[in-house]
Amino acid sequence: MKKLFLVATFVVAGFIGAQAQEFQFGAGIKAAAPIGDFGKVSSFGLGVEAQGEYMFSSNISGVGSLGYTHYFEKNDSGADGGIVPILAGLRFYAAPEFFIGAKAGVAISTSKGGGSAFNYLPHVGYNSETFQISLGYDAWTKNSFTSGAIAATGIIKF
User: Fold this and answer.
1) DSSP class of residue 110?
2) Helix segments in the chain, DSSP class H
C-alpha cells in the first residue's frame, strides 16, 4: 500500500513540474449511483475531485486524481461513509474531444475501521478547453469482494 501511495505521489509531482501547455489542472464534482450489493446498502454518492492531466502526445495522456466521495446509507443500513480515492492512469483520445481511459490506485475509507482497498476506474469522457465530463465504473476490491458505482464527474479546468 505504501508503494502505491509513493507511486501516486511521484505521478502527481511529475504532473506539477510539467510544462504549462502540456499540463492541465482542474477540480469538480462527482455523482455516483451504487450498483450490485453496494446498491442495497447505499443510495447515492456525492463528492469532489482534483485532477491533473499531462499530454504525452496528441492522443495519449497521463492523469492523476485525488478526491472525496460520501456515500449515503439506505434504509438505516449503517453504510453511511466516505472514500478518499488516490488514482493514476492513462487516457487515449480517439478525437480531441473524446477519450477512453482507466485509472487505478487506492481508496481509503473514512469510516471507523474501514481501511483501504484497491480502486480502479475505467471511464469514457468528453473534453473541451474549459471543462471535462466523464462517466465510468468506480470499483473497490478488498479481500476478494468488490463494491462499485456508476460515477459521473464534471471537472472545470484552470
Assistant:
1) -
2) 2-16, 36-41
Whether the Cβ atoms of residue 61 and residue 55 lie closer than 8 Å to each other: yes
Q: Classify each residue of 97-107 as buried b or exposed e, where b means 16 or more C-beta atoms within 10 Å of its C-beta.
A: eebebbbbbbb
Q: What is the distance between the alpha carbons of residues 155 and 126, in angstroms, rounded to a whole number? A: 10
- Alpha helices (runs of H) in 63-112, residue ranges in sequence order: none
- Closest by Cα among 112, 147, 125 to 34: 147
**Cα–chain center distance at 40:** 22
The single residue listed with the C-alpha cell 485509472 is 103
**Backbone torsions φ then ψ of 36, nearest 5 degrees:** 65, -145
Residue pLDDT tens, the chain, 158 long? 555 555 555 555 555 554 555 899 999 999 999 999 889 999 999 999 999 999 999 999 999 999 999 999 998 877 788 999 999 999 999 999 999 999 999 999 998 888 999 999 999 999 999 999 999 999 999 998 899 999 999 999 99
What single DSSP character describes residue 80? -
Identify whether the C-beta of residue 20 lies closer than 8 Å to the C-beta of residue 59. no
Task: Take residue 64 and report the three cell numbers written for it.
Answer: 492523476
